[in-house]
């Protein structure tokens, strides 16, 4: 297994795995398949440059998973980052790729001075929730109808983790 940052050289593989994820687990993504197909390559390359997107490669050097994080935009939010999506191809699940991606991402974010990370996870995605809990995330809210997929509202849990040792559960 190899974990590394994705670059514009990975564009085709990244778009392919993103499309795979949208087909197989549409509830794991903010964008719909039509929206993703409409994003020009130059914009996806810019996303790879600006956001921290890590890829997991199997022994055959095939991209089998990815995770992204975006640092807060305004100065007052530069201490935090939003994580997502995290996706691992179904045939590679259960082999530690998701955990390795998240471990590497959290380490790089902490090294970059990020103090806390947040993510959203579909309330029915118990596998991802189990991973996030094991990594030290905790639920701090529920967003009803976070997304609409084919007209149906999907709820998300909002999860948070401190990277600097601060207890974020106070008052929770």
UniProtKB/TrEMBL annotation:
Q: Which PANTHER family match?
A: L-2,4-DIAMINOBUTYRIC ACID ACETYLTRANSFERASE (PTHR43072:SF60), N-ACETYLTRANSFERASE (PTHR43072)
Q: List the residue ranges forming a coiled coil, or say none.
A: none
Q: Where is the N-acetyltransferase domain?
A: 1-164
Q: Name its species.
A: Marivita geojedonensis
Looking up CDD domains in the UniProt record yields: NAT_SF
Q: What name is this protein filed under?
A: N-acetyltransferase domain-containing protein
Any single GO molecular-function term of the entry would be: acyltransferase activity, transferring groups other than amino-acyl groups
So which domain of life are we looking at? Bacteria
User: Which Gene3D superfamilies is this protein grouped with?
Assistant: 3.40.630.30
